[in-house]
Every structure is written in structure tokens, then in C-alpha cells.
Amino acid sequence: MNKTKKYLPLLLGVSIAVGIFIGGKLNFSDSSDKLFTTNSKKDKLNRLIDFIDYEYVDAVNTDSIVDVTVNAILENLDPHSVYIPKEDMQRVSENMKGDFVGIGVSFYTYKDTIAVIRPVSGGPSEKIGIKGGDRILYADEDTLFGKNFSNEFVVSKLKGKINEEVNLKVYRKSEDTLLDFKVKRNHVPIKSIDAAYMLTDDLAYVKINRFAESTYKEFKQELTKLRRQGATQIALDLRGNPGGFLNIAEKIVDEFLEADKLILFTKNKRGNIDRSFATKRGDFEDAHVFVLIDENSASASEIIAGALQDNDKGTIVGRRSYGKGLVQREMQLGDGSAVRLTVSRYYTPTGRSIQRSYENGNKDYYDEYFSRLESGELVDPEKMEIADSLKFVTPKGKVVYGGGGIIPDVFVPLDLSMQNETFGLVTQTGLVNYFVFEQLDKQREAYDGLTREDFINDFIIGDDVVEGFKEYIRERFNSNVEFQEEIKQYIKASLGDQLYGNGTYEQVINQQDIMIEKVIVLSQQN
To answer: Does 99-189 carry CATH code 2.30.42.10?
Structure first.
């Protein structure tokens, strides 16, 4: 357990950081005249900053002072009211928009070179013949190799304006030659659907990693394909999904709920209530839906789980969710930065608020995961602390609870065999990916002719590959490590991702996922 606790802050920190940045977002509609009338409190801050700017004995970057001031103010509110500096805005906006303009490659900064993992399917680079394993050496005569370039510099050369051309010089190892390509930049999708495929003859699987502007369109397209393949049930995997746009979550719920069913309602500090109802648009209302959640499913993920649970629709499977019941609005600050401010709380159809307490400060709030782990809640539902005062009842008489997340209908414990420090190190820090890339780079042609389906169903990672990985770790960290059998699945998943993409990673990993196994059993009983 101590090893688990030592490693997990990295995973938790990444998940929370992403969750904060893409928390529920609405348009900021109040006028600037109404919001920013002059008063003494605001004048005090302005006068102080001006005083420092003009009179302080040393040169001071007042922009940094403002950033610190804004962050200090927001830290006194709630954990999800956050400041987004201007240098982060483009990345955050692109992530939530669901695309960017570029050449369309997935790449590593490998050693001192830009190495293409694979071109994005249907993107500009794939269309002109760039392949996995290619090294991009020059872009418009700018050097992209060596030790003196930054990742930001590389990205600035590969991204650009729509239909703008960039001349690339690419080294292809298999041909031992330098090739010239002229790529016309175009929109490149940032997929929010990690995988969509059939688990059984009638049970479909869809994994959503966030709720961006493009998510509903992606989801609808995949749902249509899956129905054509015979899907009458669906496993909607929201594990690790930190949320995103509230209205996108509403649209996805609408696919499963009948018209006029309440999805959620929000309430602001003035007591104004806005209700959202399902429409007649849903194409999957007659199907059974299983929603997979865990301790890192937050915000919009919880809206979907709560709306379905409170309307007695489907089955929620997994572990108690994160517990974020706050809604943010984004306000631009005029210099390229922005604030996302909590403006209301949302409630599930039965009236539950699932926001957990943040009265003891942000650190305690984010450390609650460890409290759940140490209490045993993640492996035993009987260890879960539930407040009877927050008991609610669905239309069909099912008891549900508010406060601190969505409690699943069917509990599936955390697989502790895959949570130890060593296993976490190799599966979550990119070491497997780098190892696989190097192995693939040596014998890429060996996989020519191997179809994605044959790889998923029949390809086996041998013991010699695992031994090679152990040696790879020893050379870099001067330490001996032992891995359980599951490491083979992660090596295979990474290899499949680099060869094929298109959800191969998830489809391989799911073959040994205990929650997926549980859902398949439940679907056969349904």
C-alpha cells in the first residue's frame, strides 16, 4: 500500500489538472458595464499595481504580479475556479474545440530528432505519403534536430494557418534516403472518442476521454456505425474522464432518455434555476446502457451517470465518482488569458448535489483519493461513508445518495495488482511507448501485411520481449525490476497503437479489464 501511495500522486495530479482545465463551461453573457463598475476594492488593486510599476526600486514584471494576484484570489474561492495564463490558452482552447491546424502527425521528440509515430488517419501528412518511423529534419529550411530546439519551436513549425504550405525534408530509415514533401496544413482532429467497437454480438463499447465541442458529433457517428453492426446495448466508458462542456453531456444523455425526462438543473447564488430536459432526438432510447465510472470520472461524466441513474435508465458500473457538482463560465481578461469561475451548482433529476466538500482547503480536497484508498473504499463498497441525510429516491423506488460523487449500481473493485509503483512507472510514464518505438524501428517491415484484426486477436508478445524490456529499464535506471504477466498486454497495446491507432490500444487493454468482463456478464443477464 505504501508503494501505491508513493506513485499515485502523479496520476492523480495529471487527472485533476486536466479536470480543472476542462471543467463545465458556458458562455459569459453579462455585459462588461454591469460586471466592471468602478468601486474602491478594484481601485485599491489597480492603485497598488500602478504604484509598484512606477515607483518600485527594481524592475518588476507587473504581468507576473497580476498573475499571482489572480491566482491568490481564486484560491480563496473553490478548487475549480481557475486562472488560465495566455501562454496556455491556445492549447486549452484547441483541446476543447476538438481540432487544430497542422500537418497531422503523432510524433516523439526522440533523442535529438522528431520521429513520426504515425500520421493522423486522413490527415495532410498521410495523404502525401509520410510514414511511421520517418524523421522530420527540416521545415522550410529550419532545422528540427539537435539539442538546442524546444518542443514549442517544433510545434510552431508544424502548426500554422489553414491551407498554408510547409516544405519538409524527411529521413526514411528503411530507404536510407532524404525525401522532400510539401504539406498543406489543414484541420487535424483531437479525438475525444478513444475507441468504439463491438464487445459481443449485441454489446457495443465507446470510450470518451473528455467532452469537447466535437464530442457529440464523434459520438453520434460512432453510434450509427455500431447500430449497423447489431448493437442493442452499449457500454459507455467514462473512467478517467474529467468532464468538459455541460451542453455536450446533455446531448449525449438525450440519446438514451425519452422526451421530457429531466437531465439536470442548475442553481446560482440568486436562486435562479435552469432545467434541461431530454428531447425526441434520441436514437438509443430502447437500448440498455452501462456507464463505467471510477474515482476520476468527474463533472460532465457525473452528469451523464446521475441523469441516467435518477431516471432509472441503464446500469452504472464501477466505483464512486470524483464528486464535482460545480459549473464554470469562462471570461476573457483582455490580454489573452482567462478565468473560469464557478457560477452555479448542478443537481441530478432527483435533486442531488454530488459536489464533495472543499471546506478544508484545496490540498485536502485533492488528497481525498488517498483517503478513499486508505479507508479501503476502492476495494470494498462496505467501507464507503454514506450520509443518510443525503438519501434520495428515483421514480421506481431505487435509493440513491448525494454528496461526494455518484455511487454505482454495481461495484467493481480497483485492481490492486496493477497499482504497484513499478508497474505504474512503466505503464504511465511513456517508458513502454519509447521501448516499443525502438523495437518497431528496428523491424517495422516485419509487420507488413498483418491486419489490425489479426494483431488484436492473434498476436502474442513473447517472454523474450519482456526480457528485452527489463534490460531496457536496467540500462536507463541501473536497477533490476520484476513485472507481472500484465506487462505483456501493455506492450502489445502500445505496439498496436503505434502500428494502427484507431482505438487499438483500448481494444487490447480491454481484453484483460475486470470491469469490462463484469459488463459483459451483466449484458448477458439483461
So the answer is: yes
